[in-house]
Amino acid sequence: MLGTVVGVVGLLSVTAVAQSTDIQPSTYTVPGAFPTSLYSSYYNNPTATSAQAQPVISDPVTHEIYSFSLTDPNNIPQNDTVDPHLLPPPATSSALVTHAIAQLASIAANPVFGDNTCARCQAGLEVAKFAVLAAPEIGPDLAVAACQYFDFDSECQLTYMLNNLGGVVTQLLAFADVGGYDGQAICANFLGSCDMPLTTPLNSTEWFAKPKPDPLPTPRQPTGERLKVLHISDAHIDPRYTTGAESNCSDYLCCRPNVYSNDGPGTITVPAPRYGAYYCDSPYALITAALESIPVLAGTQETGFDWTIFTGDLVSHDPDYQLQRSYIMYTETVLYDLFKRLLGSGPVYPSLGNHDTHNEAQDAPYSLGGYLAEQFSWNYDHVSSLWEYEGWINETVANYARTHYAAYMVRRTDGLRIITLNTDFWYRANYFNYINMTNPDPYGMLRFVTDELQDAEDAGDRVWIIGHVLPGWDGTNALYNPTDLFYQIIDRYSPHVIANVFFGHSHEDELSIYYTNNGTNMSAATALTPTWVCPSITPLTNLNSGFRIYEVDSGTFDILDAHTYWADVNTFAELDNQTEYGPAYRYEYNTRETYGANITWGLNDPLNATWWHLVTEAMEAEPSLVSTFNTYEGKSSVRTQPCTGECATAKICYMRSGSASLAAQNCPSGYGSVQ
Ligand SMILES: *[C@@H]1O[C@H](CO)[C@@H](O)[C@H](O)[C@H]1NC(C)=O
Ligand SMILES: *[C@@H]1O[C@H](CO)[C@@H](O)[C@H](O)[C@H]1NC(C)=O
Ligand SMILES: *[C@@H]1O[C@H](CO)[C@@H](O)[C@H](O)[C@H]1NC(C)=O
Ligand SMILES: *[C@@H]1O[C@H](CO)[C@@H](O)[C@H](O)[C@H]1NC(C)=O
Ligand SMILES: *[C@@H]1O[C@H](CO)[C@@H](O)[C@H](O)[C@H]1NC(C)=O
Ligand SMILES: *[C@@H]1O[C@H](CO)[C@@H](O)[C@H](O)[C@H]1NC(C)=O
Ligand SMILES: *[C@@H]1O[C@H](CO)[C@@H](O)[C@H](O)[C@H]1NC(C)=O
Ligand SMILES: *[C@@H]1O[C@H](CO)[C@@H](O)[C@H](O)[C@H]1NC(C)=O
Ligand SMILES: *[C@@H]1O[C@H](CO)[C@@H](O)[C@H](O)[C@H]1NC(C)=O
Ligand SMILES: *[C@@H]1O[C@H](CO)[C@@H](O)[C@H](O)[C@H]1NC(C)=O
């Protein structure tokens, strides 16, 4: 109805214009001067031919007289310092968490990302990064809330609260390049939503002070004297182990009163034997049984070992939130003391494992600066002091360890240098490693080992390197960039300086070989140095308990023979309810005899990288040799599954992978562990 009326009015006015045709004149020329009478005053001379009028304008509402500077074309203002320019009010801490979670939810739901879970994840990390930069105190709450929203842990509150990992995760978010390589790796490793970014191209030429000598210096000559050296690893004493508690529990850590079988509380399906169980760490009874057996089996009760290497992990596998610094320090105190008293004379050279810190696996680079640089010094101070107290290293070396993440170098009077590493700097589970990851050495750990190796080369000394987390094997434990650089360092100083490298961590009896030229041509002629991975004392998981004794030439520090021992955890329940006898540790195998039958090798020729490469060739020709290796990998556990077909190919490949980069590039995945 209304529309119609408007239409009629419009039509009438058009008709009226059409009728007024007689308008005069048809042209009007205005005067040349500006009509100055329009305004009572001007900022300039309005009659000028060269300038536009600048009238003084007065606002009838505000009574303000607008200043010339507003319209002065020669001084156009660019920075309005007069008007209010509003910002939103600052968010409270709780509002920041709420908004951050809402943004994470929006990113998760936004179809623009399609199925690119990696881009979603990195976008989400950006939200979290800026929230914690603005308000670090919200980091833990945000982590807990994100964990609950996306359900990436069953114990979100306990895991990510400030009193557990919340502070660590907040530091990570604050410092990491979450939009770049760091963020991709975080999303890959911790959230499973990206592929791990590839190894960053490395040119290590300038890393080294001097080129590799060519020809190599004349090798040190064997003396024919054989030293006895003990290698123990992964003790994992559980001082909370409870005989008779559930040993087949559904969640870590079994053999404790607070865990249950799948049937729930009330019934105990498999009571924990006094000496240990396959899903449990070592009770005191197992630790002392192993340490009491070692000198008897080695024949060193009177002499002690020439030395012992301990490749880390003292502490039990509790969930992080059940741990605290004093539990770590208690365990360090107990085990180093037992090593000292039960293994006899001869120094023990320990390296720290990922469990020998708090939070588990966490060690921060000194380059974080300020108080954050020192956040793990309580531990480096404690272990260094204990090692000095036990008489294994002197004050100078202890002071060095204090300021080098508990890593150190000992120059023995016999011409061997022991260089230890705190391998948390390349362990995937250390959150601090995801800050500036394209730098292969933010910790300076590889700088330290390189400088020590250069010193050793200059002095004509040989070196053993000792650490915990293996850099290579199946590539699942260590990060690409640091282990890629480590490989180049081993190449540079092998075989004339580095005689052997030792690790633990996997709890399994494994080995890998370093070659020249980044392993581009793996042959007996290019093999440089072997890495010995020691079986664990703890049976966790599904493994027997074991250790190894080496016979070492006192001139070359090459290994001439290796003897591995084990105890059968499957029989431990039979030892309960009596005190007449404990478990038996027994000889498992002789490395040279087991793998060397078809290799032409002198009786006093070392089990060096050349020999080990020939072993891998023998394995290619004779797959049953891989089955033997597989059995020993699990310390002859009844629970070890057979390894044939692709598994056998994979194991040989892992043996030839000294860096995570090589393992990932070359080998089938999924066969690294027998657990
Ligand atoms: C704008 O003015 C403010 C206040 O005088 C001053 O602090 C700021 O530096 C100026 N900005 C620019 C871009 O000149
Ligand atoms: C590596 O760096 C050195 C020295 O900086 C240079 O001479 C060499 O060409 C580089 N190598 C490669 C493969 O880029
Ligand atoms: C341990 O518990 C699992 C799950 O309930 C069960 O399958 C397995 O047979 C049990 N093992 C033993 C030795 O009782
Ligand atoms: C990370 O890299 C940045 C930029 O190079 C540097 O300022 C910072 O100190 C580095 N942080 C660490 C922990 O290395
Ligand atoms: C401490 O031990 C190192 C061997 O690693 C030795 O070079 C140094 O002279 C010793 N220092 C003292 C004060 O005995
Ligand atoms: C690999 O090294 C061996 C021994 O030095 C040599 O015989 C062979 O030709 C090399 N292969 C390649 C592809 O370089
Ligand atoms: C390993 O020992 C054999 C026999 O003594 C020797 O010929 C070979 O050069 C050694 N290999 C390395 C990498 O040192
Ligand atoms: C040890 O004693 C407990 C409690 O009496 C019993 O349940 C268990 O079967 C006994 N174990 C052995 C190996 O005799
Ligand atoms: C040695 O070689 C022979 C003949 O190829 C083979 O039958 C035997 O299994 C091999 N033994 C070992 C330990 O590799
Ligand atoms: C060594 O090989 C690995 C695997 O191919 C590669 O990722 C890495 O970049 C190589 N490192 C160097 C220094 O060439």
Write the layout of secondary structure elements.
Layout: H1 2-19, H2 93-109, H3 117-134, H4 139-150, H5 156-160, H6 162-175, H7 181-191, E1 226-232, H8 284-298, E2 307-310, H9 325-343, E3 348-350, H10 370-373, H11 377-389, H12 395-402, E4 409-411, E5 416-420, H13 445-459, E6 462-466, H14 480-492, E7 498-503, E8 510-515, E9 527-533, E10 545-553, E11 559-567, E12 586-590, H15 591-595, H16 609-621, H17 624-633, H18 646-655, H19 660-666
Parallel strand pairs: 1-2, 2-3, 5-6, 6-7, 7-9
Antiparallel strand pairs: 1-10, 4-5, 8-9, 10-11, 11-12
Bound molecules: 2-acetamido-2-deoxy-beta-D-glucopyranose (10 copies).
The site of one 2-acetamido-2-deoxy-beta-D-glucopyranose (NAG) has 4 residues, from loops.
Q: What are the segments in which pLDDT stays under 50 over at least 5 consecutive residues?
A: 1-18
**In CATH terms, what is the architecture of the largest domain?**
4-Layer Sandwich
The order of strands across the largest sheet is 3-2-1-10-11-12
Percentage of residues in helical conformation: 25-40%
